[in-house]
Amino acid sequence: MKQFLNEFKEFALRGNVMDLAVGVIIGGAFQAIINSLVKDIISPIIGLFARTDFSDMVITVLDVQIRYGSFITAVINFLIMAFIIFIMVKMLNKLASIGKKQKEDEAPKTKKCPYCLSEIPIEATKCAHCTSDLTE
Predict the structure, then answer these.
(1) CA nearest to 59, candidates 70, 44, 46
(2) 135 contacts 115 by C-beta, under 8 angstroms
(3) Of 37, 93, 100, 101, which has the most beta carbons under 10 Å away?
């Protein structure tokens, strides 16, 4: 049993698991912000044009209320969350690619022929200027 607990401790304290836990907590807090945005700001603004509040949109079928307005609010929440996550991932990918582009640009594209010292493509096996065979 002690070995099982040690394995669980090692798993739970691994870097990826802790990062995931922090991400879930931040995501939950972020979801509360988006829910408030939709419920307190966007829904009332749309309600001005629709002349109703989304939470009031209900269909009653055999004394059962179907709250399709709440569903519309949930869809709006999802779309906003998905859009913001898309923007964040796009920004992170752009930041990650900045360093890669600089490293690729630093790679030499030409070399000097050891015989005539002319600039030739890095992949060349024969110098175009002096026709020497390049063995490297």
Answers:
(1) 70
(2) no
(3) 37
pLDDT band at 15 (very low <50, low <70, confident <90, very high): low
Q: Tell me how long the chain is.
A: 136
Tell me if residue 127 falls in helix, strand or coil: coil
* Structure token pair of residue 10: 């090692």
- The structure's pTM equals 0.51
The token duo for 109 is 């594209």
In whole angstroms, give the CA distance from residue 129 to residue 136.
Answer: 18
Rounded to 5 degrees, φ, ψ at 35 are -60, -45
Distance CA 109, CA 120 (A): 9
Pairing of strands 64-66, 110-112: unpaired
pLDDT-derived band at 104 (thresholds 50, 70, 90) equals low
Spatial separation of the C-alpha atoms in residues 50 and 78, rounded to whole Å? 21
